[in-house]
From TrEMBL:
It comes from Isoalcanivorax beigongshangi. Keywords: Oxidoreductase. Its EC number is 1.5.1.33. PANTHER family: OXIDOREDUCTASE, SHORT-CHAIN DEHYDROGENASE/REDUCTASE FAMILY (AFU_ORTHOLOGUE AFUA_5G02870), SHORT-CHAIN DEHYDROGENASE_REDUCTASE FAMILY PROTEIN. InterPro entries: NAD(P)-bd_dom_sf, Sc_DH/Rdtase_CS, SDR_fam. This is Pteridine reductase. One of its GO terms (molecular function) is pteridine reductase activity. Gene3D superfamilies: NAD(P)-binding Rossmann-like Domain.
Amino acid sequence: MNAVALVTGAARRIGAVIAEHLHQRGLNVLLHCRHSTAEADALAARLNQLRPDSARVLSADLCDPHAVRRLATEALAQWGRLDVLVNNASSFYATPLAAANDEDWDALVHSNLRAPFLLIQALAPALQAQQGAVVNIIDIYAEKPLTGFSLYCAAKAGLAALTKGLARELGPAARINGVAPGPILWPEQADSGDPDAIIASTALQRAGAPDDIAGAVCWLALDAPYVTGQILAVDGGRSQVYHGAF
């Protein structure tokens, strides 16, 4: 039986590339999506052409705790095991202090923090049984917040703390780490900063690629058996060399 990975938010963008890389490493992949069912089905079809019955699609609203727990149950029911959990799904948009409301809190904190916690909680026994690993996709803004995005940054900071805090609870049988991307794919929102200024703030003076994140995820999940409780910045050196406002 092949090892199995669940990737949330796997229908498109970085999540899809992570799923493809894990599939290339020989894992069966569970592609979670919420609304992007057509894209998730298309990705699963491509992967299944490469290796029959190696990719399946699961849908869930990560803002609904009952749906998150159902997702965990459905994930385990697919192939009877889970070796890797990648918490990639995320909501991201500006919440200026004067305008932020309860719905913003729910959307940003639930998707970025509560859902990963609930999935880890529900899937920990299965992951520990396989000496498995969790990789959380965090953000460099968890350490150096982006102006106007305080709720998102607070949620990602919470996910970073959760990653570090759960390392001992999941060990010694399972590991948990995080990847904090810098400028990789530009956000679909138009209010998230000046691309030229952000790229200029990196040591490498260029944007990264989704493959950079997927490679880091695969390394932490599959190739780093003595690494846990760590957050790896994949940001072209931006978090180390830039001292102005992010």
